[in-house]
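User: If only I could read backbone structure tokens as easily as an amino acid sequence. Underneath my words sits a plain record pairing an amino acid chain with its backbone structure tokens. This is the protein in question:
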Amino acid sequence: MDGGTVRASILQIQVDPDESVESRRERVASLVRAQAGADVVVLPELWPVGAFAHDRFAAEAEEADPAKGPTALAMSAAARDAGVWLHAGSVVEKGEEAGALYNTSLVFSPSGELAATYRKIHRFGFDQGEAALMTAGTTPVTVAHPQATLGLATCYDLRFPELFRALVDAGAQVLVVPAGWPAKRADHWSLFARTRAVENQCFVVACGTAGTHAGVAQAGRSAVIDPWGEVLAETDSTEETVLTADLDLTQVEKVRESFPVLKDRVL
């Protein structure tokens, strides 16, 4: 990877139950286009439908293929128009198996190509909600951005450090985590985001959601954290906002060389 500085823009999207999915797609696409000049743009988890709108998952399920799915098609065009790498958050994806649904993240290149998909491995709900309605993904995913290797995770994944170790072993320097994290556990969100940065000596780009998802108030608190655990940028707002930070990728190797904790791993 070329290294250098990566400008990351987080779009903490408002999910308003009175706004149609089609209208929200158009609005979000316009917000993405406004980020021309960024290197990476990140959207939240399940922003088209809402992470807790369980009764709408099946009806709003889409194809991940940008030639077919309406969200993928809109985000592909927005990434191309802005000339940015776009982590388009996640959608409810129709699986190949009859009736299967996945919580699937979509990453587009500046040409609008679908560069990667990631099916969320850890589903939230304790055998209810997402955990009951969605099929679990099985494979950690990294993306070869020209300047850095990105490791993909989604919301509840943040509680499971094993996934992040696998991403680091695959070369990840920047961990990208879109979420629909509830406000009542906002402190956990901030704690885990910093913890994953410190223990893996990576940048963490954590994109929360504004508003409510099916009546569940969202934490917001989007943040960018460096490999030493310092918060480079953070919003304490639960409203829709854009958060931008510059990631000096040389920090990853500097921190790992000056404090080589990863070399002492046994398991």
Observations:
- The longest strand covers residues 85-94.
- The chain has seven helices and 15 strands.
- The CA atoms of residues 142 and 151 lie 4 Å apart.
